[in-house]
Specification:
With 310 residues, this protein is α/β, with parallel strands linked by helices. The chain has 15 helices and ten strands. Helices cover 44% and strands 18% of the residues.
């Protein structure tokens, strides 16, 4: 049987949101152990630090926004995305009681975590379906933790939240409501990439495939209704969040099938997302699909496990 290997996995959100639960499930349910992997889950401050950690070799696998993988490829970093932890956005656009549609946000202050980057993307995803551009609203830059009090006090009229946080916000003040489920609003946006350093993957192909095997098995386990309450237990423990928030987010993710159970990589989504980044001036030129994504490891895993779904 395979030699035991020790690996570090960096997660761009600490503590994790529900969208990041798969490695915690793989740990708790023994999928990593079954693949002879000792896995250290490391909370990273953000996506950029996660990609830098992968590039420097301080972590072996990085979980962060797929935009980071595309930006890394555009900067010729020697890393590739080998799978997704979530194929589409797990975010919701929440608005004040007085805002029935995104059209009503024109001229109004909205929450943002800064120009460009992921926060701009999310804001755009909130507005675009109603034909509103970000230049027509007034983004107010603040920490993500300030969104809720700002919405409650009418300092801003909308903001975008991960599903777990959306639950908390919706319960913070009567009348706050969901304007958009962003995976429906922007279905071609590629959200969560798992990256690995090329030289590491080449030298440790077996470890990479065993890691992905455990991840696929964890994702498939999470969709089994018989495991639902156990999944929520694991999620509450990993995130420290309210059980209601975890339940809401898990249901949201299952409904949208955001956790992949098969290939989890789409050329259409990658190319759409890269084009958006170019449009927002986040990258100067669009990298080729093959410089961003290497699907060979997951393809080898699915040959063994059988392909079930996206």
């Amino acid at each position: 049987s395979a030699q035991w290997a020790t690996i570090s996995v960096g997660l761009a959100l600490s503590p994790p949101k529900a969208v990041f639960f798969a490695p915690y499930v793989a740990q708790a349910e023994g999928f990593f152990a079954k693949e002879h992997l000792k896995v250290k889950l490391v909370g990273m401050p953000n996506g950029l630090q996660t990609e830098l950690g992968t590039t420097s070799g301080s972590i072996q696998f990085g979980f962060s926004s797929a935009t980071d993988a595309i930006e890394s490829a555009a900067a010729n970093a020697p890393i590739h995305a080998i799978w997704s932890y979530a194929t589409k956005l797990d975010t919701e656009c929440i608005s004040a009681p007085s805002i029935p549609s995104a059209k009503d946000l024109v001229g109004k202050p909205v929450g943002s975590t800064g120009t460009g980057g992921f926060s701009y993307t999310l804001l755009n995803a909130c507005l675009a379906p109603a034909g509103v551009s970000p230049s027509q609203v007034k983004p107010v830059n603040m920490q993500r933790s300030e969104f809720v009090p700002a919405l409650v006090s009418n300092h801003i009229y909308a903001a975008v939240f991960h599903a777990d946080d959306a639950y908390t916000v919706l319960h913070a003040k009567p009348g706050l409501h969901v304007l958009e489920k962003e995976y429906q609003a922007v279905p071609n946006w590629w959200y969560g990439g798992i990256t690995v350093l090329d030289s590491y993957a080449k030298a440790h192909t077996d470890v990479v495939e065993r890691f992905l095997t455990a991840m696929v098995l964890a994702d498939r386990w999470m969709y089994n209704p018989a495991n639902k309450s156990k999944l929520i237990d694991i999620g509450v423990k990993a995130s420290g969040e309210d059980r209601g928030a975890v339940t809401y987010a898990v249901n949201f993710i299952i409904q949208g099938h955001l956790w992949p159970t098969g290939l989890g990589l789409s050329k259409t989504q990658e190319e759409f997302t890269a084009q958006q980044l170019k449009k927002f001036n986040e990258i100067k030129s669009i990298p080729s699909y093959s410089s961003v994504v290497n699907p060979t490891y997951i393809e080898a895993v699915l040959k063994k496990l059988g392909n079930s779904g996206s």
